[in-house]
Structures are given as structure tokens and as C-alpha cells.
Design goal:
0% helix, mainly beta, 4-stranded antiparallel β-sheet, 7-stranded mixed β-sheet, 11 strands
Length: 124
């Protein structure tokens, strides 16, 4: 059983930056791959970034490459999403997720636990 709680969302202007945090509780979190997803109104949940259990391998959606950075601190049971050069199209509810595997994946249906989400709104 794993519980995830996102924080750090808010309202920012285009070009600004924001850091999202995800606090996890439960057993063997340090051996789980983690991911960030987002969902805008009327759209399906989409992949943003993922990181394997060691933190060495990261993957990003094309839309955020070069702007977003995913990282994790297993000692703190936390994963982060640093977002720079934000655009209005980044506006969405951002979700933290984890899967019962050390291998990162971009597929939404391969994650087992989800947080409740945090709203990110980017104004122009």
C-alpha cells in the first residue's frame, strides 16, 4: 500500500517556474519507479515525465523536454518536478504516480498508485 500527496501547484505567469513535490508513504517506495502525469479539462491524462528507482534514468514527453526536470530523493520518500519556462498549455492538474516496479514507464495504465493531484495554472 502506497499513499502519494502532491503539492506545489499554483498560479504562475508564462515563462515562470514552479516545483511540484510528491510525498510518499508506504513500504519499499525507494524501489519503485515514479512518474508525473497531467490532465486538462476535457482531455485524457497524459504522460509528463518518469524516473526509475535509482534516479539515473529519466524520460520526458516531447512537449516538456528541455523545460521540465524530474528528480527523486529516496531518503526523503519524495519525487519532484521542476518546471521552467512554463507555457499556458502546461495548465492542468498534475498527478504523481508510482508503480510496483523499478523500471520506468510512460504508460498511464502501468502505474498502480496515484495522488490526488495539484492544480497548475499558467497565465499569459
Amino acid at each position: 500500500q502506497v499513499q502519494l500527496v502532491e503539492s506545489g501547484g499554483g498560479l504562475v505567469q508564462a515563462g515562470g517556474s514552479l516545483r511540484l513535490s510528491c510525498a510518499a508513504s508506504g513500504r519499499t517506495f525507494n524501489n519503485y519507479a515514479m512518474g508525473w502525469f497531467r490532465q486538462a479539462p476535457g482531455k485524457e491524462r497524459e504522460f509528463v515525465a518518469t524516473i526509475n528507482w535509482t534516479g539515473r534514468n529519466t524520460y520526458y514527453a516531447d512537449s516538456v523536454k528541455g523545460r521540465f526536470t524530474i528528480s527523486r530523493d529516496n531518503a526523503k520518500n519524495a519525487v519532484y518536478l521542476h518546471m521552467n519556462s512554463l507555457k499556458p498549455e502546461d495548465t492542468a492538474v498534475y498527478y504523481c504516480a508510482t508503480r510496483l516496479s523499478s523500471i520506468a514507464t510512460m504508460r498511464v495504465d502501468e502505474y498502480d498508485y496515484w495522488g490526488q493531484g495539484t492544480q497548475v495554472t499558467v497565465s499569459s
